[in-house]
């Protein structure tokens, strides 16, 4: 079946600043490509520059934006135009009929009613092929409009090209950062109808210039059929490299040639999982989710004319050899996106991980939130987890020794600049937690993330045979215990004198917590859930704490935020208690039940979440999608297993969503997932067989999945019983000492 046809890039795009319905963009792009392209409907919307509710557009936008909260860089818009010259976003905008709009991963098309012109786009990794069909011929032109920043524009009538660069950015770049571009038209440029416009939209007939937000309008000599093809190339390295990228990726190929290649690439990317289902809406949600997991991070390396892999480093401002990736935050993605890559796309993982090693070599610190350079957003250094997850799952085709060097550095060294390394590391080393009276913001969440990071770095030390460092880091992996208060049953802020931060209220957000309160922040001990359960009074007591979380009212107090942030609104809007699936810290909550020996409750909550918050809302997603993380949660949920503790080569069992799925592994092996009696009523798993052998454990190993085979689930209307044998439960430090 044609899997692209099931992808809906518009799903999740109906979002606004106060409320996220996905916070996605309708991106046309190759998987993990350097650039993406989308329809811009409102420049005035800031990070929310597209809305599916709008019926006017301002142009196609070249974008790298990973999130509206992070912003864009190297971005610009372009639009065909006829008639009087208009250059501002508002004045040049054109209405379109939504029935004429086509948005696919491999193809973008819109008909501009005002100009009676159709614009189409097909992507490559660093370029795009554009086809413009002008029905009207009066003063036909192409407008390229940049964003704030220095811009150079050069219109070359002899070679029918428009070239230049932009320095537009939201952050994360050195002083010498530029995105170069080259646009080659297959028709003649009419110099008398071409020129430049400035930031105030004053126009002139100059064909080249440099200035603040300088744009260009290019008059075109239309062929008889009114159809023009333009090849649009980009580079972060140089103008010459932009032409090299153009020659390598497009050359003499036609628009249809480029589209055919893009379609084949996406079919291969999506075809890694084949789903059999009679429910077309569920198929759309699944393949849209798989598409979302394949957009970020962006590969920002390029290839010379001789085929050498090089990149402009946003960390040191130099041209360096090898791969580099950008536009992703590890806090958001370590839980689901990276584990999914490790299972489905291991070759990509190896190159990407080498890219992060290169980032460390170029700046002296491992990245935390890269767009394109370090943005230092969110707590922790969760790249620790992503490296460990790759290594323990056998994806070691990168410089593991240097990776460990960088990870161990931020786990043992105080950074002189909080932009890099672990914030508050001096206090963490001294107190074994971050005191809430010194670090009044996110002290609990930073501490727990550092502790989990230490556990994951320990796994890499073990892999490298560094036994002493392994033991030291594993001891630190127990330091979460400093912040658990059995008197209240939650993690809470602790002062440097050892007393608790007062007053305490579990529904107050902020302060020592990140985008949540005590309910959302007390279970971030994925590596030692049985140890945490012991602190809570045992597995049954921990289950009761979890029951209380799901049963609680979805209420909140704004706390230190001072106003209602969108995560509060999204949690309160659904009847799932304090389980805020809209944000990453809650992702693993349903699966904790299985880790404690209560698989029925995992199966109940996972199935309900997928039914009510994903499949029943085909136009939206339950919160910030964040670089594939929320959609990867859905993909794992559909497969019937979940990476509860990334950094450990295990997957806790859940409940499969489809009757049959076939996962085509890169090795050539297959995982066939069968669940014949899979219905809304048959949501419970009464038995599991792997290659015909009964699986009595509540987890599968990565090795078992990597070896392929048939994973058969027996579905039932009856809830499975509690499992008390610790050997059958997924990994925990408490049972593995």
Q: Can you describe this structure in just a few lines?
A:
By secondary structure, the chain is of the alpha+beta class.
Please estimate the helix content.
25-40%
Strand arrangement within the widest β-sheet reads: 6-7-8-9-18-13-12-11-16
Approximate strand percentage: 15-25%
Mean pLDDT: 97
Structural class: alpha+beta
Span from first to last CA? 49 Å
CATH names the topology of one domain as: Beta-galactosidase, Chain A, domain 5
What is the name of the CATH architecture of one domain?
Distorted Sandwich
Query: What is the CATH class of one domain?
Result: Mainly Beta
Shape label: globular
Put simply, the count of helices is: 21
Described by strand count, sense and barrel closure, the largest sheet is: 9 strands, antiparallel
Number of strands: 36
Low-confidence stretches: none
Radius of gyration: 26 Å
